[in-house]
Amino acid sequence: MTVAASELSLLEAAALLSGASEWDSRALPARGVPSFVLSDGPHGVRRQLGSGDHLGIAASEPATCFPTAATVANSWDPDLAEQMGQALGREALALGVDVLLGPGMNIKRSPLCGRNFEYYSEDPVLAGRMAAGLVRGIQSQGVAATPKHFAVNGQELRRMASDSVVDEATMREIYLTAFEIVVREAAPRALMSSYNRVNGTYANEHPHLLTDILRREWGFTGLVVSDWGGSNDAAAAAAAGSSLEMPAPGLQSAREIVAAVEEGRISRDAVYARAAEVIAMATRAPSARAAQTERPRFDADAHHELARRVAEESIVLLRNQDAVLPLAAGARVAVVGDMARTPRYQGSGSSQINPTRVESLLEELSSTDLELVGYAQGYDRQGAPDQALLDEAVALAGRADVVLACIGLDELSESEGLDRSHMRLPQVQTQLLEALARANPDVVAIVSAGSAVETGWEEHTRAVVHTSLSGQAGASAVLRVLTGQVNPSGRLAETYPVRYEDNPTSAWFPATGELALYQDGPYVGYRYYTTTDTPVAHPFGFGLSYSSFDYSGLSLDEAGAHLTVTNTSAVDGAEVVQLYVTAPTDVWGPERELKGFVKVPVAAGESVTVTIPFDDYTFRRYSTAEGRWIRPAGTWTVRVGRNVEDLPLQAPWEVDGHPVARANPALGHYLDGKVSQVTTAEFGVLLGRPVPQSVPSGRIGYNSPVSDLAQGRSRIGRTAVKVLQRRKAKSDASGKPDLNILFMLNMPLRAMGKMTGGMVSTEMVHGIVDFANGHGLRGLRAIVGGFFRNRRQDKATQRRLDAPR
User: Fold this and answer.
1) What angle, 0 to 180 degrees and rounded to 10, lies between the N-to-C axes of helices 78-94 and 124-139?
2) How far is the C-alpha of 486 from the C-alpha of 757, rounded, in Å?
């Protein structure tokens, strides 16, 4: 029988707060506390074989690769996300996983974040509602979901060693609201902290985030787990509200926590509270109950069909000139593009799934009524110019009725551990489209990309079908859309700017130094473009259909907005009805904000009545002066329509709320949204304190990333970085990112003591720091002596844990 946390010794309680291996929590067999298994899983279960490696290098069990979060968000359908979550939960059970590490739900502040494919949206309400659906589905099967990365995590460069400097109101309104929605509406049993610091404090040891907001304000009672290698100070993390340090720091963390209690730096109660959270997860773990029973199996074919349906509902039709789509039966098609044969269906990194099977468009075409004229590769996948490939594709295009051009971003463009350097498609692909259009104007571009791209090339197409990263069944899904078996109903969950320079963060993303200044404030994505009247290629919420819809009869009451949607075409379809609000004139901030949405099927010629409820998020703003949420009093404008720029219905709504003083004129450019021109002084007014300044010390520190060794005094350190960079260049040339190299270059030196199973101690890391700073002898003594001292201490600690009580 499992003991209560209060019955444990302090050392036993402290030992539970760190992992035993790459994917397992620590067990206390003598006390009846089992371990539980964690696994990556935003869009599929990545249950690694053997000990694993965290980044997807090692082989993993076959599992269904569903569309990524960036794709699923385009469905605007939380119920569909819940069905996908149920399937993920079933597969987790079958693969012996208790805690699934997902969904990823950070806000897409910049189109260049390399991990955007794992995140839902630039909008927190859409991200929160979609994530809540997935979490409900996963946890319906008894598996714990783990929304991540909490919080204000927006770039991959220096992701473990950067400090996100953000004002409280922006943090609350933009970067925390999605997490708040998922905690309040779906009650996740776990949550993962982010690598970065937030306003100077590591997220995993941030009392304001983890205790004040997450636990006290939102009522979260579950387990907080660090990102892998993301713990900085085990004792500070336990005091702040973080329950479990992963993956495997050995027993040193337990000793540090005990010492902190004995020295009065943290409370004994905090340690036992965290241990209780770990025990609760362990005792509810399906693997603990399944020890005496056979694991359930999942239906791989049924889950493949579900993956196809999710992809179908998430495909966005961006262009359809002269109604070239859907294609008629018997249409003669030329298929061009390497991605038609070798699909780009998921991103790279810790979410990389070993799929049960993978479809390609070229193979799936045989199951349609289309006639294949031929296939041409068209371009080199890594972007190398190849005139022969281009000429072959152009010759083929002239023999077909329609050209299906499969294009998109390659594997090096979107990956955990790196950010994109620009928003363009490879030049060889855009040149191919231009050449194809000269040979045959009926070009249909099928785009595979997990984040926004510049779209000047669209003028060389008749139709553009955006599949995002559509999972293992994406090929048959897009063919069903192309042939009209499925009426496209996906809508963009992020803005497509005309060019990258139009994005307000373009001048300073990613932050290359220690400080990532969020000086764009609340003007993220469409909030910026609509406020400043900046033209975009495709607005947030945009998507075409084979149907047409009219909106009428908007009325408002305390329950929400009510309207009628009519399908004015002869084709059954589904419409995503979106509600935006504009605050009273005295309230500064974005011109409009999404506050609700609903996806409704509407039969041809029919009308449906739609209600979008008002809720606690609809008319709120965060007041830093009062330190709480308020409902600004006055006349709000409620708009309803097809996307953020096409809102045919609007009505005023009086809110009897909190009087709001006029904005401080010292906010300057924040008042009109032109945040690309914000000054340091204006950012300081927004922050409510002086803007921190990065002061390079010229010295390697405990939290410096490994890449900084290139500037250190140690020749060995500089050589090590050069070797890593050469290996990175070699893998880049192959077209496949080396994720372990990317991780190591970004990894702070302290992470050596957190990811080596206890082999490297804190003392040894400080020795490595000394060595890198030119104090070779002193550093070497600390490294060698620390190794043997740590081994002796670990053995002594383990004996104490194993001793009978």
Assistant:
1) 40
2) 51
Q: Is 805 in contact with 12 (CB distance < 8 Å)?
A: no
Distance CA 193, CA 225 (A): 6
Give me the residue spans of the domains in the chain: 28-233, 307-517, 547-660, 666-691, 706-802
Instruction: Please determine, for residue 398, whether its predicted confidence score (pLDDT) is greater than 70.
Output: yes
CA angle 74, 75, 77 (to 5 degrees): 130
Q: List, for residues 603-650, the tens digit of each pLDDT value.
A: 999 999 999 999 999 999 999 999 999 999 999 999 999 999 999 999
Sort strands 549-557 and 560-567 into parallel, antiparallel or unpaired: antiparallel
CATH number for domain 28-233, candidates 3.90.1150.10, 3.30.40.10, 3.20.20.300, 1.10.720.60: 3.20.20.300
Average pLDDT rounded to a whole number, residues 310-314: 98
Fold of 547-660: Immunoglobulin-like (2.60.40)
Is the pLDDT reported for residue 250 higher than 70? yes
Check whether the bond before 510 is cis (ω within 30° of 0). Answer: yes
Give the pLDDT of residue 56. 47
| Contacts for 684 with CB less than 8 Å, ≥ 6 apart | 690, 691
Q: Are 10 and 258 in contact (CB under 8 A)?
A: yes
User: Span 98-116, mean pLDDT?
Assistant: 96
How is 294-307 classified by DSSP, letter by letter? PPP---HHHHHHHH
CB 453 within 8 A of CB 341: no
Strand blocks (E) in 116-204: 144-145, 163-165, 190-192, 197-198, 201-202
Q: Is 788 helix (H, G, I), strand (E, B) or coil?
A: helix
Question: b/e string for 646-668 if b means 16 or more Cβ within 10 A?
Answer: ebebeeebebebbebeeeeeebb
Q: Exactly one of 40, 98, 167, 227 is catalytic; which is it?
A: 227
In CATH, 307-517 is 3.40.50.1700: yes
DSSP letter (8 states) at residue 280: H
Q: Which amino acid is at 801?
A: L
Give the pLDDT confidence score for residue 90 in this predicted structure.
97
Candidates 91, 127, 155, 118; CA nearest to 346 is 118
Amino acid at 164: S
- Is residue 142 over pLDDT 80? yes
Range with lowest mean pLDDT among 372-381, 678-687, 707-716, 784-793? 707-716
Average pLDDT of the chain, as a whole number:
93
CA atoms of 529 and 536, how far apart (whole Å): 7
Would you say 592 and 530 are in contact if contact means Cβ atoms under 8 Å apart? yes
Instruction: Give the pLDDT mean for 254-283.
Output: 97
Q: What is the Cα–Cα distance from 491 to 565, expressed in whole angstroms?
A: 17
Task: Report the pLDDT value the prediction gives residue 158, as an integer from 0 to 100.
Answer: 86
The CA-to-CA distance between both ends of the chain, in Å, stands at 15
Q: Is the peptide bond before 286 cis (omega within 30 degrees of 0)?
A: no
Q: What is the mean pLDDT of residues 501-530?
A: 95
Based on the residue annotation, tell me whether 227 is a catalytic residue of this protein: yes
782, amino acid identity: A
Q: 706: pLDDT confidence band, cut at 50, 70 and 90?
A: confident
**What are the distances in angstroms from CA 617 to CA 88, 126, 699?**
29, 12, 46
The token pair that represents 740 in the structure block: 């372990």
Distances (CA, A) of 556 to 538, 565, 729: 29, 16, 58
Question: CA separation (Å) from 275 to 34, 220, 244, 477?
Answer: 13, 16, 9, 46
236 pLDDT above the threshold of 70: yes
Higher confidence at residue 707 or residue 781?
Answer: 781
- Do 516 and 164 form a contact (C-beta atoms < 8 A)? yes
Maximum distance among all Cα pairs of the chain, rounded to whole angstroms? 83
Distance, in Å, from the CA atom of 518 to the CA atom of 529, rounded to the nearest integer, reads 17
Can you say whether the dihedral through the CA atoms of 646, 648, 651, 653 is positive or negative?
Answer: negative
In angstroms, the CA 61 to CA 42 distance is 15
